[in-house]
Amino acid sequence: MLPPFLKSSYHRYKADTNRFTEWLIEAATSCGTKVEDLFKPDPKSSKKRSGKITKIPLKGYATLVDVIVKAGVKLPKTIRLVLERAIAIRKKFAVAFRMGGHEVDDKADKGHLHFITVLESALERLSSSVAGAVRESTKQTPKAMKGEVSIGQQIPDLLEHLALDDNDNDDGLNIKDDGKDDTPKATVQPQTFEIEDEYELELPESFFMAFCLLDDINTLRDFIKETWIEYKDGMIDAMTAAVTTNSAVILGKEMIDDVFSKIDRTDFPDSQSISITMYKLRCLLDNVPSDASRRGANEPFDLGTLDTADWALATATILLQSFIPVLQPGHCPFYRKGHFGPVDTSKPYTQRSNEQKFQSDREAVLDILGDFVFLVRIKNVMWLKDEITETMMDMMVSKKVTLHHAFCIQIFLDVGNVLEPKKSAPFNDLRMTSLRAKKSLTSLLASIKTHPCASWPKSMTEQTQGILEFIETHLLKDVWIPLKEKSAPGFKHAEFHLFKENPVLSGLTMYDLNLNLQDIGLTTINTWKSVFPILHLYNLLEHAREVPTLDWKDLDLFLKFHDEKTIFVGGRPVGIEDSFKIFLLFWGMPATFVSKVVNGATKPENNSRLRQAVGTPRAIAPTTVLATAFHVALVEDRKASFSLAIVEKVLEYLDSVPDSTTSTPTNAFRILKRKWKSTKTLSPLQLLATLRSNLATEEPRLLFNYIGLHERCIEFYEQARAHLHDKFVQYNGPNYLKDIDKEPPFVVFYIMHAALMSSKAQRTLFPKGPSSTASDLEFGSVMLRRSGEQIREFMKGGKGEIACKELRVFSKIYGKVSEGLEAKKKEEKDVYWTAIEDVVDPKALAMYQFGRLDGRI
Questions:
Q1: Shortest CA distance to 512 belongs to which of 638, 610, 373?
Q2: Of the segments 619-633, 734-748, 783-797, which one has the largest average pLDDT value?
Q3: Which intervals hold domain DUF6604 (predicted)?
Q4: Residue 828 lies in a domain
Q5: Which of 423, 441, 466 is the last residue of a domain?
Q6: 570 and 443 part of one domain
Q7: How many domains, the chain?
Q8: Which of 653, 642, 656 is nearest to 694 (CA)?
Q9: How far apart are CA 629 and CA 663, in angstroms?
Q10: 378 DSSP 8-state letter
Q11: Are 22 and 109 found together in one domain?
C-alpha cells in the first residue's frame, strides 16, 4: 500500500470533496442556519471505519451556497484550490468517456455531469460573492483556458502562483488562510461525507476509481519516459534513470494494490479486469465492434484502437495472456525473432503506424519472456533483481496475469522504445564500469600485499574478491550461455541478452557496483589514513608564502565532496603550529598530549609514546545519502527495494539544506521543501522528481575513485620520504624509518614537526620577526619548501587530477549540467513535475491534461 504521506488521484479527490463539503456545512452553521435536516448519518458506518459518515443530498449544496453567499462569507483560497482540483479530475473523467466523436446518452452521463455542474456553480457563486477574494484565480490567459499554452510557457508562472498559496495542503485539512480566518473552527470528531445524487449514475464510482488509477499509472509512464529521454540526451546517468524507474514501478504497484483493495469486485473481479474492462468500455462508447471483424491476421484486437489499449494497459495484458499457454513444465520457450513477420524499425517508435508499433511491442515482449522463464527454471540467484524482473518471474510461477505484470512489462516497453535503437547503451555503460571496477579492485588487492595494514578487515578482502568474480563471470563473460544452450539446443542465444534488453537491470547493477566501490574505497582510506595527512600538509602549503601555488585538483575535489570540519577538526588552520595541533587532534591524540608535542616536551623519536597517545582517528562517511540508503537494501537482500527507510532519506532533503552542484537550491526543490514543511504530504510524482534530482546530484560523488586516490597518496609518501630523507635523518635520526615503513602517511608528521621546530627556533632568535605582524609561516621552512617542490614534481605526470579526469569521462553530471542551457532546460522540467498537481492553475492543468489524453485514448 502507498505510505500515508503519498496521495493517489482518487484519494486526493475524496479528500478535496470531503474538505469542501465540511467547509460548506461549517460555514453555513456559523451563519446561524440549521442544516441538521440535510444530515443522514449512516448507522452502519461505525462498523466499517472510524469517524462518522454523513450523507448529503447533492441538491443541498445549492441551499448551503445560498446561505453563505447571502452572509458574505469569504471563500478561503485553500478551499477554492481543493474544489478546483476536484472539479478538474471529474472533468477529466467526463471528457475521457465522451471523446471519439460519439454522442453520450443523456441518462448515461447525466448524473456525472450534474455533479460537476453543481460544483462549478458553487465555485462560481462563492468566488464572486466577495469582490477580490479570489481574483488571483482569474489570471489565466485565454490561451491557457483553451489548452493552447505549452508546458514551457506555463513554467514562468508557477513560482508566482506558488507564492500566493504558501499554505496549500494536499488534502486541504487543518490549513488556515493568512490574515483573518473566515473558516469556522474545525470539528473535534472527523467526518466523512458521501454525496447522494438524485440522478442514478450509469457508470458506478468504481469506474471513476479505475480511471484515476490508470491516469496515475500513465502519468508515471510519462515521467519514466522523460527520465530516459534525459539519459539519452546525456543529462542524467543510467544509474539515476534506473533507480528512479525502479522506484516508480514499485510505487505504481502499490497504487494498484491500494485501489484494488477498495474497488467494487462486482465490477472488477481481478486486477487485470481493470485493464480489459476499461478498454472494452472505451471501445463500446466509440462504437468499435468487439468482434473479430476488424482484426487483421495475427492481431489479437483491432489495432485501430491501439491508443486506447495502450492507455488501459490492455496491449501489455493481452500479450502476456497469450504467453501463458506456452508455459510447459521443464521447457524454456525462447522466441525466434521474426516469427510473426519482419519488424520495421526504420522510423522512431512514435512515428510508426499502429500495426508497426504493435509488431515491435509484441516482438520485444515475447523476446524477453523466455529469459524470465529461464531464470525460474535454473533457480538462479541473481546478483540483484530489478522490480520488472522480479515481477515477471513471479508471473512465470503463478501463470496468472495481473495488472502488476501488465504495468511492469509496459514500462519495459516504454523504456526500450525511448532508447531505440540504442537500447543497449546502459549495458555499455555497465561494461565500462565493470572494467573500471576490475582495474581498481585488482590494484587494491595487490596494494594490500605490498602495504599491509593490521586493521584492514578480512571481510573487505572477501567482498572485493567476490565482486571481481561476479564481474568476470556475469559482466565480462556471460555465464548463462552454456546453460541456455543446454536448455534450448540449436537456438542461437545472444550474449548478455537480459542486460541489453532491460536497461533498468543494467542501470541498477551499475549502481550497485559503484556503491560497492565507494564502500571499499572509503574503508581503504579510513583504514590506512592515506589521504588525510596529505590534506593537512596541502592546506598548510597553500598558506606558505615561500611555496608557489599548488593545484592538486583531486584533493580540492575531495575536500569539496566531504565536510572540512571533520577533516580539519572545526575549520581550516593557517599557521604551522595550528596546523600541527589540528593534525594531531585528527589522529585522536588527547589535547594535553598534543600540547606537550607542540611545545617540544615529547620528541618525535619517542615512537612508543606517540603510538600510545594515538586514540581513534577520525573517519569520513559517505556524502551520498541516498546511495547509502539504497546500499543497505542491496547488501541485505540484493534487491533494489524502495523501502520506507529510503523514502525517509528522500524526504530528509526537504528538511535540510540541499546538497547540490549548483550554488543555490533549485526552484523545484524550493517548491517541494515548502510543501513538505507545511503539509508533510507529497504526491508520488513529487517524491520521484525529488529522488531523481538528488540521485543525479550524488552521481559525481558516487563515482569518485577513492581507491585510486589512496594509491597515489601512498606513492607520494614513498617519493617524499626518498626526497626528504636527509632532512628526516638530520632532525630525527635514522630510526624514523621504522614509523614510515609501517605507516607511510607518518611522513607528514615529520614534515610538519620539523617545520614547527624550525619556526620556533627562528622566533627565539628573531622575536620580532620580519614584520610587526609576523606569523610562524613568515620565517620560512626548508622542509615546507622542499615538500611543495615534491608535490609539484609528483603532479607533473598529471597524477594530481586523475580522479577529476575519470569523472569527466564517466560522469554525466560533473561539469555538464551545473551551468548553461541544459541546466535551465532540466530545471524547467523539474519544476513542471514537482508543481503539476499543486501549483498550476487547475483549469489550465485540466485543459492540458485533456489535450494529452486526446493523443492517448
A1: 638
A2: 783-797
A3: 11-260
A4: no
A5: 423
A6: no
A7: 4
A8: 653
A9: 25
A10: H
A11: yes
CA distance 706 to 807: 12
Q: Give yes or no: residues 145 and 32 share one domain.
A: yes
Confirm whether 775 is domain-assigned: yes
Give the tens place of pLDDT for each residue, 395-451: 999 999 999 999 999 999 999 999 998 899 999 999 999 999 999 999 999 999 988
Whether 488 and 560 map to the same domain: the answer is: no
What is the distance between the alpha carbons of residues 54 and 678, in angstroms, rounded to a whole number? 29
Residues 773 and 767: their CA atoms lie apart, in Å, by: 11
- Banded model confidence at residue 194, pLDDT cuts 50, 70, 90: low
What pLDDT does 638 receive? 56
Summarize pLDDT for 551-568 with one digit per residue, the tens.
999 999 999 998 788 888
Higher pLDDT, 825 or 275: 275
pLDDT at 710 over 80: yes
Report how far residue 41's alpha carbon sits from residue 194's, in angstroms, rounded to the nearest whole number. Answer: 10
354 and 285 housed in the same domain:
yes
Beta strands 191-196 and 52-57 are: parallel
Rounded Cα gap, residues 399 and 329, in angstroms: 12
Grid cell of 428 as nine digits:
555499455
pLDDT grade, residue 647 (50/70/90)?
A: low
Residues constituting the chain? 857
Q: Say whether both 572 and 601 belong to one domain.
A: yes
Identify any residues that bridge with 196 across adjacent strands, giving them in sequence order: 57
State pLDDT tens for residues 221-277: 999 999 999 999 988 999 999 999 998 998 899 899 989 888 988 889 988 899 999
Give the residue among 317, 277, 309, 301 at the shortest CA–CA distance from 400.
Answer: 317
Question: What gap in Å lies between CA 331 and CA 487, rounded to an integer?
Answer: 8
252 and 131 co-located in one domain: no
Give yes or no for a contact between 431 and 461, defined as CB atoms under 8 angstroms apart. Answer: no
**Which neighbouring-strand residues pair with 382?**
none
How many other β-carbons are positioned within 10 Å of the β-carbon of residue 123?
A: 21
* 468 and 603 housed in the same domain: no
Q: Give phi and psi for 301, each to the nearest 5.
A: -155, 170
Q: Is residue 37 part of a domain?
A: yes
- 139 vs 378, residue with greater confidence: 378
Q: What is the pLDDT of residue 72?
A: 85
What pairs with residue 191 in β-bridges? 52
What is the 3-class SS of 798-837, one letter each residue? CCCCHHHHHHHHHCCCCCCCCCHHHHHHHHHHHHHHHHCC
Q: How far apart are the first and last CA of the chain?
A: 28
Distance CA 701, CA 561 (A): 7
All 3 cell numbers of residue 287? 462504437
The long-range contacts involving 653-662, CB below 8 angstroms and separated by at least 24 positions, are: 653/625, 653/690, 653/694, 654/690, 658/694, 658/697, 659/623, 659/625, 659/694, 659/697, 659/698, 660/697, 661/697, 661/700, 661/813, 661/814, 661/817, 661/818, 662/818, 662/823
**Domain range enclosing 447:** 426-502
CA 473 to CA 477: how far, in whole Å? 5
Instruction: Give yes or no for residue 393 having a pLDDT over 50.
Output: yes
Please state, in angstroms and as integers, the Cα–Cα distance from residue 45 to each residue in 17, 33, 50, 56, following that order: 19, 26, 8, 15
**3-class secondary-structure state, position 568:** coil
Percent helix, strand and coil across the chain, each rounded to 5? 65, 0, 35
Residue 663 inside a domain? The answer is no
Global pTM value: 0.82
CA 693 to chain centre: 6
Q: Distance between CA atoms of 416 and 398, rounded to whole angstroms? A: 26
